[in-house]
Amino acid sequence: ESGIPDWSDNWLAYTPFDAVVLNGGDLAAMPPGVFAAIGDYLHAGGNVVLLGTTDLPAAWHATGTKKMHEGAEHDVGFGSCFTFDSDNPGVLNSQSVSRLREAVRESAFYWQGLPDEVGANATLPVVDNLKIPTRGIVIIMLLFIILIGPVNMIYLSRIKRRTWMLWTIPTISFATTLLVFAYSLLREGITPDTRIAGLTVLDQTTHRAATVGGEAFYCPLTPSGGLSFEYGTEATPLVHREWGSGTSREVDWTTSQHFAHGWVSSRVPAHFHLRKSETRRERIQIVNENGKLLVVNSLGANIKSLWIADADMNVYQADNIAAGEKSGLIHSGTQPMAKTGAKGILRDQGFAVSAHENSGVEGYLQPNTYVAVLDSNPFLENGLGSASRAKRTRSSAVVFGILSDDDKVGGAK
């Protein structure tokens, strides 16, 4: 059931909101596909309310729990799961109802706050310079005007061939067009630029990864193949939405999410907000070799910076760890227990957090978690596919990881 019904006057006498309400006793009988879909929705940032139970399914591993009067609020991925003892929502007190409304408003504000084309390019710039080469084009056009006008007429008058203007003017115009095209081609080339950034919650206990991120594209020529994303990726174009006529756009879901036509124009940045929840095997592993703590990078990308917090919030740090390699950990002090986690990073810094330098993501650590800044993003696919080029792709990621019992600093072997 999507949305909470108006069970009583004091419950929801206001606009609908984004939540799924379930009877906890029905989870066991739920078809596996439906249960998996609700779990994906929860991990990717949804709100789920379970009535008549205080137990979370094992697949919904909570990174933090807050007690409420009749139940509890659990942080699961980017989402929140509320559990209540009673299966009658009408008996919930005002504090519980207020917290539910607040959670839903936070979800709504996030989506309402997503930028359009202009704001998206400020959040996730794909190229350094989007300015039109005005000076070069003006010089070319000035030379064209002088050549096709006074120079052409004076020359043809001197040789007494004014009728040649019937072919000299089109020829000069065609040559100027080729010159402008060649100038643009030499300046930008034909290879598209791509920018990928994202924040991933990686639970090494359940092997579940929830990712929120963005992709930006700048194509000198409109890509003939469009953009393609996997079925499990929620791709939201960051465009200005208004009623009225405009450019037609096409999406084909036959074999994938194929944004076939109208989504990317030549020399105009295009941005997409992405969400996905999936099973992943990436991880870090902490080992103890002769009393020295080492970390093994199995995240599928090079680690630029890594911070790990143990159960007592003692923080260990390492930098520049290549994929598949290991490095020593240095104790860097004790962090105050802010306990804001990945949801705090997303709330404060947005989906393009990895695009910002010195973002201070280590300040969001929780007990038995880690934050890794990667120099590429193994969790988000490039929408251009084979049309993209590695040299023209800038990719980065922030991973907020939850350590399993075997991987915790105290359990390192």
Overview of the structural elements:
With 413 residues, the chain is α+β, with helices and mostly antiparallel strands. The chain is built from six helices and 21 strands. It has helices at 32-43, 94-112, 117-123, 134-158, 165-188, 341-349, and strands spanning 20-23, 47-51, 64-67, 71-76, 79-84, 193-203, 208-218, 227-229, 233-237, 250-252, 257-261, 270-279, 283-289, 292-298, 303-309, 314-321, 326-328, 330-334, 369-374, 393-395, 397-402. Strands 6, 7, 9, 12, 15, 16, 18, 19, 20 and 21 form a ten-stranded mixed β-sheet that branches. Strands 1-2-5-4-3 form a five-stranded mixed β-sheet. Helix 4 runs antiparallel to helix 5 (165-188).
Order of helices and strands: EHEEEEHHHHEEEEEEEEEEEEEHEEE
Give the overall silhouette. Answer: elongated
Straight-line distance between termini: 46 Å
Kindly name the structural category: alpha+beta
Computed over alpha carbons, the radius of gyration is 28 Å
How many helix segments? 6
The quaternary organization reads as single chain
DSSP strand tally: 21
Q: Quick one: biggest sheet?
A: 10 strands, mixed
Helix content: 10-25%
Mean pLDDT: 86
**What portion of residues belong to β-strands?**
25-35%
Low-confidence stretches: 1-17
